[in-house]
Amino acid sequence: MKDDGINADPLELEKFSQLAHRWWDPNSEFKPLHEINPLRMNYIEGLAGLSDKIVLDVGCGGGILSEGMATRGATVTGIDLSDKALKVAKLHLLETGQQVEYRKITTESLAKEQPQHYDIVTCMEMLEHVPDPMSIIRSCAKLAKPGGWVFFSTINRNPKSYLFAIIGAEYILKLLPRGTHEYANFIKPSELARMARNAGLSEEKLIGMTYNPFTKVYALGQDTDVNYIMAYRA
User: Fold this and answer.
1) 165 phi and psi angles, rounded to 5 deg
2) Is position 80 annotated in a ligand binding site?
3) What is the per-residue pLDDT for 3?
């Protein structure tokens, strides 16, 4: 449910806040994010470019993607509702010297403040953690400039995704802490596509992301059964 009108689950915020100090440890619970970050950035850059673009990273957490996009020449704003994660993100900038603006603000509020402001809006691994994903999608659409790009990544909902994303990743391989994901909150590509259309976005490309437990390598490809990224134009 919504907490005082804010589209966030307090338990989800607390869960990630407790891990905030480990965001930039490449061997921590966030190791998968560090390993897929180059794939995500290459995908975004290949479609939309990053150099000299005005970019918004929704649900930025500790800033792994935000700071990465900044290193490729983008002017980046990262927003999140976790004070601890944002503090870690800001502290990391002191170590690297990168420039990112981090703000604690809801996507919905920023959409009212800065409509049609961004060349690129990214919302990665967040939709499955909020009570009202449609509200986030609609706000991301409002934040993008006409013709701008919007990227969503999330997890499909089917028996295979339950086996791989929860049983495999959280219990067997221990890639993620137990309880990171709730199966009921996973979103099928068809559902995301419908919500995006209703928000006025035009689908450009759907791509899957896979993990090979034997080689321990992540890759982008046609398999969208578990993790996937959808690219849209506003």
Assistant:
1) -80, -30
2) yes
3) 39
